Every structure is written in C-alpha cells, then in structure tokens.
Amino acid sequence: MTDSGSDSDTHADVQPQANIDLDPVTFEVLRSSFTNLVDRMAQQIRRTCYSFVIYNRDFSNCLNDAEGNTVMQGSKDIAVHVGTLHYTCKETLEYFEGDINPGDVYIVNDPYLGGTHINDVRIMRPVFYDDELIAVTQSNGHWADVGGPAPGSFNIEANDHYAEGLRIPPLKIWDAGEFREDVANLLTTNMRLSEDRMGDLRAQTEATRIAEERLLELVDKYGIDTVMTAFDESKSYVERIMREQIRELPDGTWHTQDYIDADPNKEEGFVTIDVEMTIDGDEVHYDLSGSDEYVGNFLNSTFGTSFSAVVSGTKMFFPDVPLNSGLYRVVSADLPEGTVVDAPEPVPVTGSVAGAYEKVMNAIFELWSEVLPERAMAAAFNLEYLLAGGQDQRPGYEGQEFAWYDWMAGGWGGRDGKDGSNATAPVFGAGLAVQSLEGQERDTPLLTSQHSIVADSAGPGEYRGGCGVRKGGRMLACENSVMSYCSDRARSITWGINGGLPGIPHGVTLTQDGEERQMGTVFSNVPIDEGDEFVRPSSGGGGFGDPLERDPVAVLEDVKDDYVSVERAKRDYGVIIDEIDPEVCAYEIDHEATADQRAHIREHRTEWLEEDPEAVARRYRDGELDTLDLIRRYGVILEWSSGELLEQTTAQFRELLRERAVSEWS
User: Fold this and answer.
1) Which of 391, 403, 541, 405 is nearest to 486 (CA)?
2) Which residues form the Hydantoinase B/oxoprolinase domain (predicted)?
3) C or N terminus of the chain, fewer CB within 10 Å?
4) Residue 290 φ/ψ, nearest 5 degrees
5) Is the pLDDT of residue 17 over 80?
6) Cα gap 222→89, rounded to integer Å
C-alpha cells in the first residue's frame, strides 16, 4: 500500500454536498445514535472482558458500512486503532466476498492487512436487513498474549512475525450462527492464559451483537433508507467540516524528522522518520518517503499503523471534528513499502506503537504547531510496556500461569502559553487508564514498591513539559518467570520546540542478587525470580520556549511541588533558589543571583554544544556531570549502561537541539 484509501465511492475531485439529504434534526439524532451504539460496545466489553489489559481500555470499536468504510468510532476509543479498523474491515470483506452470511462473525489480527500488531485482535459481525448486507460492527481488543516465545508476545529477538506469536488471517469464528469451537480452541490453546483469551473473544463478539441489535432498532424506527442515508451523510459531514477548516489555512509545505534510537543490525545512529506535510486548498497530504528502511527488530510499523498515526496526529489539532472515513477523503499519505513506516511481511512489527507510530505522531504535532501555533505542543513521552510472565507460587496460586502487562503514564509536551500535562496516558491511547496497582497485585506475584512523579523529568521551557512517572516493583514467589520490555527514546530523547529542552531517557533498571543493571529500552525473556526488583521512569514532555524566559516564580512553584529540584532550577532555568526550610516548602528566589546565572547561561550555552563530546563523556564518567547535564547542556548521548560515547548519535542529537532549541534562543 502506498497511499491512503478513500471511500470507494469518493474521488479526490468530488466536493462535499452543500446540503444534506436528511432534515437536520433526524441527521443529528442518527449521527449521535451511531456514536452511542459504539460506546455501548465499549461498556459491554469493559463489563465482560477477562483481560486486565482490555479492562484498562486498550480497545476500540466502530461501525462500518457495507463496504468497510468507518461510519463512526466511539468517544472512548484509543488513537492507535483510529484509521486501522477501516482497512481491516475492507480486507476482511474482500477475503470473504461471496460467502458473507447472517450469523457470521470474523476474527483477524493480521498487521499486514491494515492492522496494527498481532496483539490487537479484531472481531467483525456483518449486519443484514432483508437479506442484504448493510453494515459491519467491529470490536478490537489488545489481547495480553497471542503466543510466541515471550509472555505477552513482545519478542525483541524476533527476526520475523513467526517468532512473535500467532498471526490470524480473516477466519470465521461463527459460521451462519454456529460457533466454530474447534477454530476458537486452535487459536486460544496456542496462547497463554487461554481461558482469558476465550473470554475476551466472547466479550468482543457479544459487543458486536449488541451493536447489531441497536442498529436494527434504528432501522425499524427510521427506515432502512433513512439510516443508510445517515451513514453517507455522517461521512460527508466530517469531510465537509474538515475541508472548511483546512481551506482557511495557508497553503504550503512543512517538513520535520523524528527518530527511533537505533537499528540493531547497523552501526549506532538514529533511524530517521521523515515527514513532509502539504496543505493544498482543502486537502492535507503527508509524504513519509524520506524515512529509513525497516529496522532489525519489532519497532517497525505497518501501513495501517502509520496511517493511523497520520490521522491521530492530525486529529489532535482538530478536536471538534468527529472521526470517520470522511476524514480520509481529506487526509492522505504516501507510506512507501520497505521503510520503517510500512514494513512488509514477514518483518516483525509488534513494538510498532513504541517505535515508528509515536514518532510519526510527534513529528506531525511539530508540523501543525507551525501552522496553528496557538495549539502548539512539544513532543510527548514514549509509550512503554513492561511484561512479566511465568508460574505464580504464592499460597493459593501454586503453579498457576500469570501474565503481568504494564504501561505507565508520562508527560505531554509544553504548549504555547501552558505547561504540559503531568502523568498522562500516552498519545497513542489518550483514553487508556492507569492500571490499578491493587488489581495487578491480586492477579500476579508482583508488589509495586513505588509509583510517583519524577522530579526534573519534564523538558525545561518557558512552558515546561508535563512530568513523567517512576514506577518500581519487586517479584514475589514465582518460578520459570521472565521479563520483557518495549520502549524507545533512551537516545532520541523526548524533545522540545521553540527553544525548549528535552526530557529524560527511558529505560529499566533491574536489581538481582544485589547487582543493579541498566537494561535499556528493549529486551525479552530475561529470567527473573523472587526478590528481584526493577524500576523505570517515563520521560516528561519536551519544553516549549526558552527556559530562561520562564517566570522565576513559576520555577519556584515547581520546586515546591517537587516537579523541579533546586539544582536543576539553577542549571536548566538559571533560577537561584535559597532553601529556607524545605520541610515546610519555605524557599526564596535570589533575584540578583538569578540575573547573573541567566546571563552566564546565555553567554555560554551555544559553546557547550560545541565542546568535545569525548571530553564531556569523560567528565560524566568521573562524576563531574550528570545525565541531564549531558542531554540538556552538552547534547551528548552515551550508552548509559557503560558510559561509552555514541559519536554518530551525539552528532545527530546536537543537530536536533540546534534546530529546535538554539535557533529560537535570543
């Protein structure tokens, strides 16, 4: 696939209708009813799912028309599935063309058929009225395991999808109303906690049935012609209002890049994701053809995932526009096959959301920040997953299989006129819930040891990024257990814009037998045992604007809130704060010393980015400088576990700072 697929009945030169065919009241009632129908699916899944991951809202639903086009997504769907349910439905309808019957239900998780990754399992039910296919109701849930060598199915060692887990092409799981138990058993017995997987399958299937029931109620009430017209008008409505808003913006082309930390099959250095955006009249087109080829691990994206990132990144700047396939008539993308943003089968893609996906989104944030500066936002923290699995040996659980599947909140980027959001769900899924620690501890032999906001994690700026979170845990009684981790931005650290500075590196620290090891951002199947401890921070968002322009009083308030330390207030913001009595938050700004410190930083900060990187790294290894000094002052990136200088990465990171920060400093 090389471009976005518009609705089959729509061409690029077709303009939206000036008037809708339904009266406004009926149209609005039905359009809202479609949203309510999808939201009912969400409530059904949440009440009946077996998986703690799905319970914490890693799912989406939608209503598709008979051609697979998205008529409506719900108000509780997460961003990463946006744009992919449309393609999966089209591919499935094409696969079963000529053999689609009332009572059929399909299952598919194939990432190369417009999907995301194999954990996202889609259930689709064709809806008939008077023996005619009128719609498809679709439910997507992230199953906590779909097989493969690593619990949770996140295998960094995979060289192809065969080593990730079970890839499911379109299959009939109900055939004309008959449950194909043999097929369901074949799938779920190849997955860990197979009873949970079967429960999630049934929960999602029931959600599609409820949506079918509600849709047919609307048909009985308003008539089939009226409902089908409302389908078409709902898409045209989104197209029309999106075109109207784009038409008011200046034509032009904007360009930027974001990065994955490295390709393990090559020398150190960033993997480039190149995004060019063009506004032409009332349409927006993205060209990602300058992106690097796919990498040698699972951080690649498929077409569906990357197009989803394009749609989600754009939609973030148009929050009032509803979401359906009418948007895809206005927004298009070139995603060349063979690149990191459109990896072909059998290239592994399970970690795509932590890899290419969020990089595309953040790049698009930066582009739209130039076009709509009043809505500008710096980069957000990187999604991360920490997974553990094995046998639970706690009393009452002896030998039972467990799967601990955790993600963290983190900071979003600073904005024009406002600090970033603290401890927020990742941009890939703004609707995700922070998982209940008590629920996790009941289900798995892991005890949470800490969960708190990380001081100094937010990228400094006139408006700082939101703060990240630190979460730690300790293994309880377990056997044959392993841990895996999927993240990025240990090197391509969450960046600021308009003069703002970066956040902090991602990564896990694991302590076993008293020995502490920095594990980095990607690993799989590391053996763990009772008593082992781990901790990982999420980055804050990037800063917006020159940190030396931040009001010293705002810096003082951040110190009082433990968002910023006294030392980083001095080194990042040039604000000197005297500690009178920290126990009662008694601090005081030394205004004269602050003026001197800010003048000193202004005089020398461009010089710091020119210092010999190896000399800077040596000062770090000698304990003279800390990690944030290297990142924010000197632009030096190391292999953090060893202190070894990464020359190519440092050169690229410094250039990134020059473009996004130095160029904006007065």
Assistant:
1) 405
2) 23-547
3) C
4) -85, 5
5) no
6) 26
